[in-house]
Amino acid sequence: MIRYIGKRLLWMIPVMLGIAVLIFSIMYICPGDPAQSLLGPSASAVELAAKREEMGLNDPYIVRLGRYLYQTFIRLDLGTSYKFGTSVFAGLMERMQYTLVIALLCMCLQVFVGTPLGIMAATHHNGLWDRISMFLALVGVSIPAFWLALMLVLIFAVNLGWLPTSGVANGIASFILPCIANSFAGIASQARHTRSSMLEVIRSDYIVTAKAKGLSQKTVLFKHALPNALIPIITIVGNGMGMMLGGTVIIENVFAIPGVGRYMTDAINSRDYPVVMGGVLVLGLIFSLIMLLVDIVYAFVDPRIKAQYEGRKGKK
Amino acid sequence: MSTAVNDTHVGVRTRRQGQLGQVMHRLRKNKVAMLGLVIMLLLIAMALLSPWIAPYNYAKTSKADRYASPSWQHLFGCDAMGRDILSRIMYGARASLWLGLMSTLVATVIGVLLGSLVGYYGGRVDNIVMRILDIIQAIPGMLLSIAISAALGSGIGNTILALSIGGVPMTVRLLRGSILTVRKQEYIEAAEKINCSKWRVITAHILPNSIAPVIVSVTMGIGNTILQAASLSYIGLGVQPPTPEWGAMLSEGKSMITKYPHLCIFPGLAIMLVVLCLNMLGDGLRDAMDPKLKN
Q1: Checking phi first, is residue A79 left (phi over 0); if not, alpha (psi -120 to 50) or beta?
Q2: Whole-angstrom distance, CA of residue B64 vs CA of residue B62
Q3: In this structure, what DSSP letter does residue B242 have?
Q4: What is the pLDDT of residues A151-175, one digit of tens each?
Q5: Where are the domains of chain A?
Q6: Is the CB of A15 inside 8 Å of chain B's CB atoms?
Q7: The model's pTM
Q8: CA–CA gap between residue B247 and residue B80 (Å, rounded)
Q9: C-beta atoms of B140 and A142 within 8 A
Q10: Which residue among A76, A165, A308, B245 is least packed, with the fewest CB closer than 10 Å?
Q11: Can you tell me the ipTM of this complex?
Q12: How far is B234 from chain A (nearest CA, A)?
């Protein structure tokens, strides 16, 4: 197991390098001139040329890419923001708390609300509860998160005045609407996947056997069906985290939350490349770590995968 | 002899049609999916016919109608420049639907090409392609679309590209997995042994038997892509005003939402309706193609 984790961690190095090359190349073809946005519209042509030379913007692609990779991976420096003149890493860390809080709260909502909903729908298959919750889930995966956010603000903040419209000044109350808006689709999709996974398991022979043995409905459901149904759902949780991290970028814009997402969209608009690249790298790293965690949990939960791995180790 | 060959040929063909027919038959019995399909077709018709059926020109401004509330004259009201929102939604369907359909199509074509390549050949090609896709998948999809669309600039073509790249890895993975199970079957070996060209083996024998999961995921994917496209336009990337597009309309209306909520309510409802119909259709297709749910 430890060797497997180590191998996966090692494999993350080329993935991170790949992300860095990819995002650098994307930013390389970005239109606009960072020197211009740094010096402002009043800068003269000479000043601009000097600044470009100083920043190394005139060097060929491969030289700049090499310099970027060296700076990022050898010196572990994400660079300095063009706009603020401060360290990108510090800027990201300062804002990361908001993004992580939202993403993690959304994850919890997805798992702890979506899964029970799906189980209830499956156990009441074709019943009223199944139909209502699946209709809601279908609507849930079809709603644009930012529109839901706007509507929630309109109802709960503007008309009822219960919750703040934007910002983070009100503590936990500031996070309620963003989290609901951002996790709604995740909860819905979790419920849908849990339901279909449960239904598939309930139809299998060993559940019939368990019922035939005379076990109670509860034991059959929670001891026999659920553990097997949960295995495919773990993958959904990992993917959900990616959706939540991407989704916070939009949601932070709607609610004016000073998180990483807003930092990055502002940076895109002001051509602040180091911030964009640093943000993508850090979010990519977090996402990869979570996917690794998901795979480890997967191996722990599913004895078949564990055995497969241990069998391979035995051969070597 | 030749009649015999013809007969088997005909036999094969009818059976394949029969399979598709079965799927269609099961789909037709699914009322929810059919409702989704009908509304979707109506919406597509509305988008195509918008110059003739829209009550007003989408670009016609009118000072008197600025922020007009919904009324019989302007069913959905008017925006900040006095433009009729219903007409803009009808025209906007063109951009929104086009973005969703085209991005998914581009992603699917690339995904199916790559997927059949790596699934059929395996080995080193497989390894290289899959590792590259690992890298693309390590970036959350929305983030990747935002970055690419910032790099390429706004506009429909660039947005399609930005949205489709994130969808490729998923299609490749699905198809590759499904091809790997088909690949070892006897009929593929038989086709190879009678000297079918590789192209023919892949297109005539492997793909028809492994494409089902991709079709389902594509149908579901269109809805998701439309949501992503709208999000991009909403944060100021993607399609930009004055082109009417639902996400962009929301973006224009959001600053006035407290005073004039109708600016935001209707474009959002339009997005939701389209995605809901596509998901209903996708659910139906998934059930119809699932051999376990037959009869």
Answers
A1: left
A2: 6
A3: T
A4: 888 888 777 878 777 776 777 777 8
A5: 2-74, 91-315
A6: yes
A7: 0.82
A8: 16
A9: no
A10: A76
A11: 0.80
A12: 8
